[in-house]
Design a protein that fits this description.
This protein has about 200 residues and is mainly β. It contains one helix and eight strands.
Length: about 200
C-alpha cells in the first residue's frame, strides 16, 4: 500500500513539474492547410518554442480530390485517395528555426516538415480509373516561411518548400482497390509543399 502511495505521489509530482516546465516556454496552436506532392490536408498543430527553435506535432484530415489535377497519367504524384476512414488520417511533425529575430511584426524561419499518411492511390490509365495500394506515404520537405502578427496573439503563417516523398507498400487490403502496381520495396518522387495556417499564441 505504501509503495502505491509513493508511486502515486511521484506520478502527481511529475505531472505538476511537466505542466510548470511547459508554462516557461511559448506554446502555439494552429489550423493549417497543406498541399504536398501526396495531396491536400487540413491539420491541427501544437508547438513549443525553445529560444529560436519551434518543435511541433499535429494531426489532420486528408482531403480526396474529386477530379485529378492533370492528365499526365501520374501513378503517385497528387494521387493519394482515401477509401476508408483511417485513410483520411494525417500525422505531422515539424521543426522551425527562426531567423532575423529583431523584426517586430514578421517572424521568418527555416523549416523541416514530415508528414505520414496511409491510403491507396487513385490513378487514371487510358481513361480507366485504377485504385491501388494501400501505401504508407512519407513526405519530407525543407524550406522557408514566416509568421505575420494579425491582432494580439493571432498570427498568419505561410510556408513553401521542396523535398521528396517515399511511397512504401503495406501488403494490406483496402476497399475499392482494383489494381496492383509493380512496386517492390518503395518508390520516391520530388515534391513541393505549400502551407497556410492560422496560429494562436497561448501565452
Amino acid at each position: 500500500m505504501l509503495k502505491i502511495l509513493i508511486s502515486s505521489k511521484g506520478s502527481f509530482l511529475l505531472i505538476i513539474l511537466s505542466v510548470f516546465t511547459l508554462k516557461t516556454y511559448s506554446q502555439k496552436v494552429s489550423m493549417n492547410y497543406y498541399s504536398t506532392g501526396t495531396g491536400q490536408s487540413i491539420t491541427a498543430n501544437y508547438s513549443l518554442m525553445i529560444n529560436n527553435n519551434e518543435f511541433g506535432v499535429g494531426i489532420g484530415y486528408n482531403i480526396n480530390r474529386l477530379i485529378l489535377p492533370d492528365d499526365q497519367e501520374n501513378i503517385y504524384y497528387k494521387r493519394q485517395f482515401a477509401t476508408e476512414p483511417l485513410h483520411h488520417l494525417n500525422t505531422n511533425v515539424f521543426y522551425h528555426r527562426y531567423i532575423l529575430s529583431r523584426l517586430e511584426h514578421i517572424n521568418p524561419f527555416l523549416f523541416y516538415d514530415f508528414q505520414c499518411k496511409y491510403s491507396p492511390a487513385k490513378t487514371i490509365i487510358n481513361n480507366d480509373i485504377k485504385y491501388h495500394g494501400p501505401y504508407f506515404w512519407l513526405d519530407n520537405t525543407i524550406g522557408a516561411g514566416f509568421n505575420v502578427n494579425l491582432l494580439g496573439n493571432w498570427y498568419l503563417q505561410q510556408k513553401i518548400g521542396a523535398g521528396a516523398h517515399v511511397i512504401i507498400p503495406s501488403d494490406n487490403d483496402a476497399s475499392l482497390v482494383n489494381a496492383s502496381m509493380p512496386i517492390d520495396k518503395y518508390e520516391w518522387e520530388v515534391i513541393g509543399l505549400l502551407n497556410v495556417g492560422l496560429i494562436y499564441k497561448l501565452d
